[in-house]
Amino acid sequence: MAEHLPNAMTDDPAAIRDLVIQMTKAAEREGIDRVEITEEVDSVFEVIFDAMQHREGGRAEGEESDKMAEAALDLLAGRLARETGIAHEQAEELIKQIGTDWDALLREAHFLKARHRL
After folding, report:
1. What's the whole-model pTM score?
2. DSSP 8-state code for residue 61
3. Are 79 and 32 in contact (CB under 8 A)?
4. What is the mean pLDDT of residues 31-56?
């Protein structure tokens, strides 16, 4: 997300709303349904607002940061599991090992699934 945030910090609701719209459109282009996002994140607006406020200092702190990271991992693992047919737990493990590079995750998930068929 940080790569796509504007360089200026803002708490302007209109600017943040525009970023929410851009994020939603980008998610749709990637095949991520809006419902899927709202199941994992209570408010996209709040997530972007928080990212704007903590861009220089990194991520949110403590329990809030852990919840956001867990939600992001769960969302990505769910998508990987659905698209490749591997178990959600396997998807989480791949993400922890490989990172969030989608092409690498797909490649490894398909390899893992094929290996388990043998």
Report:
1. 0.49
2. P
3. yes
4. 74
Q: What is the number of domains present in the chain?
A: 1
Domain span at residue 52? 2-117
Residues 6+ apart with CB under 8 A from 72: 40
Spatial CA neighbour of 114 closest among 83, 85, 93 = 85
> CA angle, corner 36, sides to 32 and 40, nearest 5?
125
For residue 10, name the pLDDT band (cuts at 50, 70, 90). Answer: low
Residue 99 has pLDDT above 60, yes or no: yes
pLDDT of residue 109: 93
Asked if residues 88 and 117 have their Cβ atoms less than 8 Å apart, the reply is no
Is the distance from CB of 68 to CB of 32 less than 8 angstroms? no
Q: How far apart are CA 57 and CA 90, in angstroms?
A: 32
Greatest pairwise CA separation for the chain in angstroms: 55
